[in-house]
Each structure stands twice: as structure tokens, then as C-alpha cells.
């Protein structure tokens, strides 16, 4: 009995110290990042929910669909309680300092109507986007009315324009930047006196062929009307300490965002978050594995589908770290100033740390605040040691303290050994310390090829300087060996073995195609076994190149080798070409047999084998800046192979060049037709098998 009483008292004590909603050590969401291959990599939590602030906590009644949040330099928190038409001001400890429901405007009492946005200047002046009243309101530090700024006036603004300001910020010169509803020309820029200056930062559009055709046949009035429909509309804005404007948009299509992810695009035309300078040019760095778009893997079916819907952004000006808020899935994605994803937290739900409709995000010291317009509360997230180590490492590197940054990254790796960005950060610090070999290894583990190339360039230079004599000696010996082998090849490789002779003749064919292909057919210098070996070597070459190409030029995941796909990628095109070519040339008076086509095509692929095998070691000794040579030789192999196939077709079938080119084009069309028919047959067989199996199950069930 005494033991039970002690246990009960211990439980009650824990509940008193840790309230039930925060007692769980594991939050209601998962933290993760994405690796270079796009896989989800689960990670320790960078932020954990610390507290929830609502109207009852503040003692001012329930909040009603609040829509914006602002934290001033002195730690004051400003809340736009839109549904209650009021602005709430608290200190950093959540003690209410003011509740602004009304103000005196020219001797009359005035109120807000659905205020959606607010901004506070350094001197404490409060600017409110009074949305449904169609104006901006400036209040003094004590909430006293200063002025109102009505709808902008200019010739370029339509007379029927309905002004509904949603969000706003001010720069050091007191210029006002406004995001307004249904305005897709960009940000409305107002001078300090409230006069209209113009639009800025309109997103560039992605034209398509239909737009060009329509523009060519439309009238001048129609072309003028088309301008109104092109750019995307911004939904939020933030200004950092350097005066750069961060804007978000959720108007991009899922297909455009998916394409940007697939191609790892840095194109600002498909960017849900942008960083604009004073000229409206997007200068946001997008150097991460993927563009900063939120989730890069998302479903297209279900209740929550499609790409992330980014609705707000907040920036840590000391490091350039910025966090974006995803309303669709309730997640906060944090990126460094290069666009690398640091960590993700949050989610949709009603548990602590999750949201129903997150509307705004802000920073309060080292904490992150998220405003929920449906749950009518603010969730306060505090940083964990893991998250703090990441931020500290970035700050130390940003300030030039590279050795200290290295120590922080090593501590991060103790928490999460799969964190690629930690290897990249560690590699950057080692590179600054001229520890090139170690930096290369870190960049390899972090899958950062451009920085690996930079470190390798320094490492190669240092290695060549230290071993110049040995390298020159090795080149001389290799040259002498090649010369001796070429001079005495007849003695070294004695003839007599027909298979070896057939294989060796491939070298003659690729350099003397006219005589070589003639001899393959008429003198039987080639053979089916030799052709089979060449195709097998081609498959092996493709596999070796995929797995062994130098890190800088190899973007394949070595863990995902699928031999069936690699074999099929060679055998299927090869087989389709031979079959389609034989079918066509039989009808077009071709003199070559099916066996001739198989042998000729196989021998024509020898340049792919030779050059690709040479490219494997070559890729290990060049940098990314020298990659043009690698690309040239890879394309040369394809061109050489294609040329040999065309010449082999011409000589084998005794065609003219014109007829050969026509036949080759028709062969490619035939390959597509055979593939289409094959897929139809496969689908039909699959349906038949399913039908028969269903009947069998039905009969078995009834019996």
C-alpha cells in the first residue's frame, strides 16, 4: 500500500511539473530532411513546442481568425486579431501591453475592419493593413492615430480597381511595400507620403507556344488585355535588416513545381519564395539539392494533395537562415542562405505542435512563433540542442571562424550521421583550412559535387607538384608500352582463333567503315558469337560507367543499381533496331539478311565501348570546369556509333545515302510502332489473365 501511494504521488508530481499536453517527450510530428536523391531522411527534432498562447492565456477573450504576427526589435509581439477587428500588443513574456480596438480619426471614433497585416517600425509606429476598409492606418507607439493612406492613384491603375491591402512592410527610407488582394503586377510601392510609386518585383512568366500563336492572331485590344492574366500573385512579404524583400506565393501550379523539383531548377519563374532587391530582381540563392519549395515529395490524390502552399517567411538576419510556412501541411521548412534545407518541423492536427490553418510565422529571440487562424492560438517553439548546433555552425562559418564551425558540425554528426549538410559544412571549413583531401571526402559524403570539384582542383595541383617526376615517368612508360604493342601486335596476338580474329576486326571496321562493313558481309570477317560478345561488353561498359564514373560526373545512386534495367537499356533498343530494320529493308529491296543486320549493328557500337571505358578513368582526373571535354567525348561516342550504323546499313543493303537516311528514319518509327503494339499486347494479356483468374476465384468460391 505504501509503495502504491508513493507511485501515485510521483505521478501527480510529474503532472504538476509537466502539464499533460507537454508531458510527451515525442511531439506529434516528425522531423526530416531530403538527401541528394530525394529520399526522406528522418532527423532529430530541431524545434519542439514549448507553449501555446491563446486569448484566455492573455486574459483578453478568445482570438477570432487572427491573420498576422509581428515581433519588434525590443521583443514586443503584435497580433492582428482580424475577426475581432483589433490589434493586440504583448511583451516577450506575453503580458498584454495594449489592446487597440478603436482610435480617434479627425475627432471621430474609428475602427478596423478585418485587418490582415501589420508592421512596426524601429521607432514603434504601427502600420496596419485595414483590409476591408481599403486603407493603411499608421498609429503611434501608444496606439494614437497618425494618418490613413487610402487606395493608390495612378493612370496605370484601373478605375474599377478594388483596393484590399493584405500585408505590408517599410524600408529604412519609410517607403511602403504592400501586398494587395487580386494584384498580380507585383508589389505596390508607395512613397513615404503614401503616394503611388509603381509596381515592383512582378514574377517573370513562362510563355508557351499557345500564348505565342494567340498573340500573333489577336487584336491590339486583346493583346493588351492578356497582360492582366500573366504574372502570379504574392500572398505575403517580409523585409530583412539589409532591406531585401522576401515574398511568397501559392499561385504556382503543382506541375510547374514538380518540374522544378525534377530538374533541380534555380529558375525564379517557378519559385514560391523569392528575395527581391530594390529593383525587384530576385536574388535568392538556390544552390541546394532542390529548390526551396517545401516538400519535394507529395501525393496527387487524397484529401491533402499537391505541392506545399507557402504563405509566410521569416528571416534570421545574422545568418541569412529563413523559415517558410506551409499552410497545406502545417510544416515549417528552414533553409540557409544558399537554399539548403536545414530541418523541417510541424504538421496538421490538433495536438501540441500541429496546426489547423497556420497563417503567420515570426521569430522571438531563439524561438519561433506560429499563428493558427483556425485554432486561434500561437504555438511557441523552442530550439533543441541539435537545432542550436546547426544554427551556431552556420553563424561561425558566416563570421569566418572555420575551425570552431568544424567542431559544431562534428557535434551535429554525432546526433545525425546521415545529415548531408553537416558533411558539406564540415567540408567548407576544411577547404578554408587547405585540408583538401579531408574536404573532398566530406563533400563526397554530402553529395556536393561543385565544392568537391573545387577541393579536388587544389588537391590535384598539390599532388602533381609533389609527384611531377613520377607522373612524367609513368606517361613515358605508358606511351612506350602502347607503341611496342602496336608495333608487335601480330606477334603478341597470333591469328588462328576465328572468334578472336572476328573481335579484333572490329577495330578495323570502326576506322575503315566502307571496307570493314563490306568485308563483314561478303568476306564473313564477322560472326554472331563475336557480335554477341560485343553486345555483352556494351552492357558491361554501361554498368561500369554507371557505377565507376568519377564522383563529379556521376549523378547516379550506386545503391540503386538494377541490372535488369541496365541490360534492357541496351538489349531492347538493339533488338528493336535489328527487327525493325530487317522488316523494312525486306520490303525495300535490301540485300542484307537478319544475321547481317545483327552483326553490322553490333560492330557499329564498338566506339561506345572504347570511349566510355576511357571516360571512366578520365572522369577521375578532371574537374567540373573541365567537364566540357568529358561531354565532348561522350557525345563523340554516340555520334560515331550513329554514323557507323548508318554507313553499315547503306553498305549491307547496297543503298544510296538518301535511301539509307530514309530507311533509318523509318526504322526509328518502326521501333516506336513495335513498342506500342507490344505494350498493347502486354496490357491485353494482363486483362485476360485477370479475367480468367477472377472466373476461377468465382467458381472456386461457389464450389
From TrEMBL:
Domain Yip1: 508-676
Membrane topology: Multi-pass membrane protein
Natural source organism: Caldicoprobacter faecalis
UniProt protein name: NHL repeat-containing protein
Gene3D superfamilies linked to this entry: Tetratricopeptide repeat domain, TolB, C-terminal domain
Main location: membrane
Compartment(s) where it occurs, according to its Swiss-Prot or TrEMBL record: Membrane
Pfam assignment, any one: Yip1
Xref: PROSITE patterns: NHL
Ranges of the NHL repeats in the UniProt entry: 61-93, 100-142
Keywords: Membrane, Repeat, Signal, Transmembrane, Transmembrane helix
Taxonomic lineage of the native organism: Bacteria, Bacillati, Bacillota, Clostridia, Caldicoprobacterales
